[in-house]
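Treating backbone geometry as a discrete language has practical consequences that deserve illustration. Part of our work consisted of pairing the sequence of a single chain with a tokenised description of its backbone. What the numbers capture is local backbone geometry rather than side-chain detail. For completeness, the protein is quoted in full, as a sequence line and a line of structure tokens:
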Amino acid sequence: MISRVIVILISVMFTVSISYAQPGVHTAKSGGEVIRLIRNEKLRLILPGAMRDNNVDMWIHVTRAGDPDPMAPHFGSTNGYLIFTDLGDRIERAVFGSAGAVENIDVRGSDKISLAFSGYDYGHLDPGIYDEITEFVAKRDPKTIAVNTSDWIATADGISYSQYLKLEKILGPKYSKRIVSAERVITTFRKRRILREVAGLTSALETHRQILERALSNEVITPGVTTIADVGMWIKQELFKRHMTGYGTRASGPRVLFSKSKPSRKPDVRYWINHGSYVLQRGDFGTYDLGVKYLDYFATDYKRNWYIMRKGETSVPEDIQHAFDRAMAAHEIFRNNIKVGRTVGQTKKAIISAMEDAGYIYAPFRDIGAEDYKMVQKALAKTDKSGFSFDFHQLGNYGGGSFMYGGPAISPYLHDRDHLVIDENNFFAFEYMVHTNLPNLRPGFPVSLNIEGDHIVSSRGVEFLHPPLERILLIR
């Protein structure tokens, strides 16, 4: 009897341990502790360099309740002014309004100013209530004041027009002339990573991988029955169980790159068929681009390739396997030419030169799928060589949002990033395309294999944060 009780207890303990150890699963308490640690460490370790390396003496981050702040993952829900001032030996933290999740505040504004920023008694306030901010700034006499306004990237453009005008009045003519955009401070603050961020993104990526590879198997896909939308909704439900996605009636699904079926519309470098009602068939070959949100802080963005085998097949068709092998052969060439300390412009030149030396044809694209496909068709019309394109874009908190995030995206259509230097521990989506003709299967219509993984650049080179794509996933 005693031995049976022990066995039951061990079984229960093991079950609980396994349940808690699932990648991506956090309690409200443990998840909050992780985010709190990251926020505090970023302010302590990253903020001083972000301000000093961009010649900023004071950073005034303006927010308003009810107007979502792009920097909320780092600061929480704030309302009013967060003011960071470089005092030489440290960065002083001041709050006029609500501090959100920012801790270790050195200076706090009055309750009256907090009420004013919250909109209490609007229209009847004495403008002099904001004098404490005016005096605070004048006492520190900053030469540059970074403010969250930017025409370049959305993450640094959280201030509204009305709040910008109010800030100018509060600062007065002398200090308003010293305002600069906070876009470079915010970019630097976000792209430089502490180790706990590396660990957090790694957890999200492992959850991503396990769910994605389950979705691209017979556990989810029955050839001739399952639609693209069915697969997308299955993944959405799996993520929902882990509190990693929101409600919605639609979910992105796999894209078909090769099929005997007619294309959805004009051929696109991203897909051949992409409509949710399409029933996946034997002989279809494709990709699945998935993003996972984790702890309301991290976002992933990478792909897997798959093939649904025909009856009697024991391997992927030769042409498709050849195209995949050409894509995989390019992986290390790209990887070896992305290095810490190089600018984006230098990196692009090195990549293009190395790939062309290896026999690939450069096919730069503009991110307009159908037009890009025409360009690929023209470039490969009279050759058996493969073409290549690349878009090593930013990653970490907004998935693949290069236009929201101003880091060093290595892309042919983002020349505004060419001057940026690749920093240590820079997260990025290792994304590229290799275009190859399929003479025996689809003459005149090359297949564009979009390969993507989420990696980090360190002084040692490009390091994998998850097991990379090495083979086509087979669905039988």
Q: What stands out?
A: Residues 1-21 have pLDDT under 50 and may be disordered. The two ends are 47 Å apart (CA to CA).
